[in-house]
Description:
By secondary structure, this protein is of the alpha+beta class. Helix content is 31%, strand content 31%. The protein folds into two domains: 19-228, C8orf32 fold; 242-330, Immunoglobulin-like (Sandwich). β15 and β16 (299-306) form a beta hairpin.
Amino acid sequence: MKLFFFFLMLSSTICNGQISDFKAIDFTRADDIAKLHKGTSLSNLPLLAQKLTQKLPTKVEQFRAIYTWVCTNVTGDINQTTKISRKRKKLKNDSLSYIKWNTNYKKIAFKKLVKHKKTMCTGYAYLIKELCYLADIECEIIDGYGRTVISNIESLELLNHSWNAVKLNNKWYLCDATWSSGYAIDGVFVKDYNDGYFLTEPLLFAKNHYPLYKKWLLDNTLIHTKFRATPLVYGEAFKHKIIPMLPEEMNVSIQKNTEIDFSFTSLIDNATAKISLVCFSGTHEKILPITDLKKEGRLIKFKHKFKHKGFYDVHLKMNKDIVATYTIKVI
Length: 331
């Protein structure tokens, strides 16, 4: 399975953001400009910002070119991520020492970003913000908790991730260049651009991003509720643009021979997608039978009855991709 690395009230001027707001815009030209300038040095950011944006008529297209370029030209630095994570854990009870260490380390990290185009999440977020500033696009770095298979799964334990919020047409949107750029597996970074983290629907984004300041959830239904350990979602959920709805919690406890309702909302037309529920025994994948499969507009739902006691890691799949995980305790 792919492993991705890395309490203010909302004012009335901030509202939900999503890529569908720009469905009439063709981003091909912006993406082509990003490709045209592949490999451009980071030693002159004003020049890079000008090259990426000067021929594009709208701010959203300019931002798309910046975002695509950063995601496809910068490589995730696994060693740097691991080093900072270890230091953060070591000094979790001594914030002043960590801040001092982190301030000094940022200088080293910045030099590595400029020279080798390698960084971690804060570097991606910084670069996006800096290029946006040079292009006169309002952008913020958002610090928070990234939920992965090894971090912040059931509670907010460790501040470990950074992403961006960008203001376009007087409206805030969310994106994550780090997780768009690729993923880590067995300690190696694999470049694999995932467009699903670009201007993502806030309800989906919140499935594995939780900001330090709740206003950056950008959704009143989320801001006024506490963090919940919802089903764990992966980058493939963002590619397919689906939001798991039921079960609402990742950990579920039921009696034997009980049916569970599963459902998710699809933000795009997934009518032809093959939907399945699976669990694993070692490396063997077992398909769990589903019943009452129904598609009601964008809502897709089905049931499964657990007939035997035990503990199950259950995975929702679309086609060949695992998009979400639940843990089911049958008693």
